[in-house]
Specification:
By secondary structure, this protein is an alpha/beta fold. It has six helices and 16 strands. Strand 5 and strand 6 form a beta hairpin. Helix 1 packs across helix 2. It is globular. The protein binds ribose-5-phosphate. The site of ribose-5-phosphate has 18 residues, from helix 4.
Amino acid sequence: MPHRKELKQEAAVRAAALVESGMRVGLGTGSTAKYAILELGRRLREGELTDIVGVPTSDASDTLARAQGIEIVELGTLELDLAIDGADEIDPNLDLIKGLGGALTREKLVELRAKRLVIIADDAKLVTRLGEKAALPIEVVRFGFESTLARLADLGARGTLREQGGQAYVTDNGNYIFDARFGDALPDAATLAERLKLTPGVVEHGLFLGMATQAFVASSEGVREIPARSRTS
Ligand SMILES: O=C[C@H](O)[C@H](O)[C@H](O)COP(=O)(O)O
């Protein structure tokens, strides 16, 4: 039976095959997106691809992509042909929870500029309802974060401020992350997403609704393509 790492790699290779010479590509973050960046590097080195530029969604992906010889450009107002990224949960509509790797804000900024968002994952990420397994990461500014967490509690969020090495985890943007739970699954994800955006102190949340256009999900039976659909946001 293939290891999770191999499944992630298989899904990533399928998505990276969609990249053509001359494309502008959003580069995701995490243990699955890493394989897509490595595969793009391989394709460039072996002459299968030329002239692509990448917009990374984290400092880690920026460093990895540069090491792979991918030309990096600023997001600015660029329109991207394609973005490839992992996810923490994928529901049957291709709505997602993202941000376990802490990169949700830049991921959303980059992936909203992409004509297509291709999600890569192993089958452990598939859920019937968002929030079944993963907490919802919410990025909050550090200033007065206690009062922001109190506002989130008023919305029904229970959870913890993310830590790393005994210290509060700090994102590439200098903020904290609150990993929120809302009971057994999220209530209405669209309503929750709106409320979170209206909460002072919240920078971004990990609900990616109507954004993914396609997914490659790997299991021991192979890679299943969840076909393209149009974006609604
Ligand atoms: O902030 C991190 C991202 O949203 C990742 O894409 C997500 O956490 C999935 O990561 P992984 O592929 O490591 O499971």
